[in-house]
Amino acid sequence: MLRLKNLTKSYNGNYIFQDFNMDIEQNRITCLLGKSGSGKTTLLNVLSSITDEYVFEYSDFKSLKYSYIFQEPRLLNWYTVYKNMQFVLNNSKTEKQTTHNKIINCLKMVDMDKYADYYPYQLSGGMAQRVSIARAFLKDFDVLLMDEPFKGLDPTQKENIIDRFLEMWKENRKTVIYVTHDLDEALYIAYDIHVLGEKPTKILYTSRNAYKMSNEEREVERNKIWQILKSQI
Amino acid sequence: MKQRLLKTIGIILWLIIWQILSLIINKELLLPSPYATVRTLINLMSVSSFYSALLYSLFRIVVGFIIAVVFPFTIGVLSGLNRTAEILLSPFITIVRSTPVMSFIILAIIWFSYNLAPLVVNLIMCFPPIYDNVVKGIKNTDTKLLDMAKIYEVKPTKVFTGVYLGSVKPFLAAGMNTALGLAFRVAVAAEVLANPKYGIGTRLLQAKYNLETTEVFAWTLVILVLSYIFEYIFKKIIEGGRYNAQTKKSDKII
Fold first, then answer.
1. What percent of chain B has pLDDT over 90?
2. Å from B141 to nearest chain A CA?
3. Same domain as A14, residue A38
């Protein structure tokens, strides 16, 4: 279990988090569900230390290694897909062959190995996002953070990409913290769901083991979370 | 293709206007005809001193330009990354930008040898456009990409070449293009004043003293052609560097 205790962070005098607590089960996909503006992205940035202006009492998250699938692909436009993958690996030249195989394997998993020599601006949004997913799995990590990575993809592609993602995840089942405002997406992917409330952000409700639920149970859970989200407006 | 044709027609049109004007004025001392200019140029080219003047000028232009790329590039990167450095440097940049070229040329002649002065002035004048653009490019670097590199613990040297340089590239190209055009004009102007032993500027001044207007025209033509050739080579090099988002956006595959 990864623990975060009494996180406090303010921005321009407003508290975004005030004595915020959160537990994350390891080797599972945990979803942080909340409306936009509920501090979800900020929380991911705090965990991964992209932002460092915050205080806390206790955190298991400080010394971990992260991969991050952002809302946008965040690829280097002047590098090919292959070089973009290479960019995040700090390997010595002696491991060239292993590195090469690793990159090709990761690209294969998202069906992008044929596009290794393309530049990101030649790809569609969905293809670029697939590269960014491959990049996230290329590096060794303890926790994978995802910030609405499937937002803005067209629905047919979205399902395909999500299933690809789940396949890749099942190979080693690392801890995933996944942010979204899409309840159906959350119920489809997540094991645990933390429902976040308005600022200062707190956890309103935690749904455990959504993946084990029967269809009826899931429907009940869905309505329950839906009511909580609605009461927030 | 159509554009190229129009361009050629444009050039021919202005050559005809030039020819007609020179016929109306009918004084070679005031306005030599295109034909007379080319004839004089061919005459000049048959003498070896033509080539020594050409080579010395080219040397000043090219070396000045190269130093003028390396030097402001390095300082520009520093300023782009460090606000303090930028503020400390800003008076220097403002002075260079607003001081007349002639002041620099005269000062350079006082401080350096006749041969070196044009090169130094060239260097100083090319500084602001390259520096400005490099600073702009560094500042324009996408913080989202920097965050990505931070998450994946990419080495600082790789972040520099991969993220910062990629962002600076198009800006640097624009700066270099401006600087290249400047280099030709500034170096020759400095030669006219400094009057080094060999140089296109020196020959321009001599032609003026001898009231050889055709020769002034011929040398000017040499400068224009050289400048055009260099800009052309530069353009090819930039396009050769495969990445050019503006022109290649069209070949999106999906």
1. 60
2. 11
3. yes
- Locate A85 and state its tokens: 């993958």
CB contact under 8 A, B154 and A68: no
B251 interface with A at CB cutoff 8 Å:
yes
Give A24's strand partners: A2
Domains: count for chain B: 1
List, in order, residues 6 or more apart from A115 with CB less than 8 Å away: A81, A107, A123, A127, A131
Question: Chain A residues with CB inside 8 Å of B145's CB?
Answer: 74, 76
Write the CB contacts of B138 (distance below 8 Å, at least 6 apart in sequence). B76, B77, B79, B80, B81, B164, B167, B168
Q: What is the CATH number of the domain that holds B41?
A: 1.10.3720.10
Region B106-131 average pLDDT? 89
Sort strands A143-147 and A175-180 into parallel, antiparallel or unpaired.
Answer: parallel
What lies within 8 Å, CB to CB, of A187 at 6+ separation is A193, A210, A218, A221, A222
What are the tens digits of pLDDT across the range A84-100?
A: 999 998 766 667 788 88
A177 with A136, same domain?
Answer: no
From CA A70, how far away is CA B152, in angstroms rounded?
12
B164: closest CA of chain A, how far (Å): 10
The full DSSP string for A175-210 is EEEEEES-HHHHHHH-SEEEEE-SSSB-EEEEE--G
Q: Does A125 touch chain B (CB under 8 A)?
A: no
Instruction: Mark yes or no for CB contact B253/A88 under 8 Å.
Output: no
| A192 shares a domain with A126 | no
Domain interval for residue A176: 2-65+142-231
Question: Which range marks the domain in which residue B50 is found?
Answer: 37-241
What's the CATH number where A42 sits?
Answer: 3.40.50.300
